[in-house]
Specification:
The protein is α+β, with helices and mostly antiparallel strands. It contains 10 helices and 4 strands. Helix 3 packs antiparallel against helix 5 and helix 5 packs antiparallel against helix 9.
Amino acid sequence: MRFLYLIFPAWLLLLTACAPVGPEYRPPSVDLPDNWTDGQGPAAPAALHHSRRWWGLFDDPVLNGLVDRAIAANHDLRIAASRITAARARLRQTAATAAPAVEAGAGSTHSRRSDNAGSDGGTRDLFEAGFDAGWEIDLFGGQRRAIEAAAATLAATEENRRDVLVSLEAEVGRTYFELRGSQRQLATARDTLAAQEQTLAVVAGRRQLGLASGLEAAQAETQKSLVAAQIPALEQKIAAGRNQLALLLDLQPAEIARRLTGPTPTLTVPPNLPAGLPSDLLRRRPDIRQAERQLAAATAEVGVATADLFPRFSLSGLIGLQSSTLADLVSSGSRYWSIGPAVTLPIFDRSRLKAAVTISEATLEEMQATYEKIVLAALVETETAL
């Protein structure tokens, strides 16, 4: 019998080295075109150098400061960073589940037994201390698949933060450009209004001298009113742009207004940047990388659900000290221990477990379709931008 107890753990450890159940993940292959429709070629070194801080190409210190502030303080980025912290903790938690669990405990009881329960009655003291250990053998790889899923989910969460970062940088740049454009339009509208007021004064003087008709004066008044009507809308658009920047940068609107005081700078328009090859999208776009990691997590989850259909093997052990007197607790006669394997097999719950496998397989198909959709959308977006 003792030989069986010694050989059983070694046999389980040998079987644990086998491949886990469920499909093995393979990165999806996507049929991408060799080039863009308009014939754009590979990205030049300058374009690759500025791909991460593209806004530096505009040579605007104000824009650089706004983007840096947004990266440091934006709420969406802070939320994404918190999710990464939680995903890392879940990965550690999942990995710890696969390791043996050991607990230590100690306690004492003072009890009285019934005189009418077939015993001697009276009171009794019991002191005990010991260790309790348990380990589920990952025979069919369910725990390994769970760790794979948690690791892939962590990677997807990190890519989600990068996606939020790219979107934030683009949103700050777009809002800033629109704001500067509106400021230029407002300055032009005010100059035009001043010119129209001068024209109206000239026409009014000419009319007093009988050199201009009432129709000419009415036309000049109409032109002035049309230009003046544009100014409130532009002022409102500028205020909305400042408020949007304040939200993106986690600043008060008054602080944004202070940072944007002064003359409107002349932006340096960079030359057209080559878009690179279509295959570059798979490496450069975080939304595609996030979808790929979500697909990997869904693949591992199929293995997790499939492993629940198979028996579970575990080892448990207990060692400790037990005595009716505290003085004898550490003596050799107070020792007790137990060790033994256990196996559990789902029988009446298999329909639920099979349904869980079907759900995980359907989720895998959904993630596959989602990945292909995101890649196609990225190609279309880039073609449209070009």
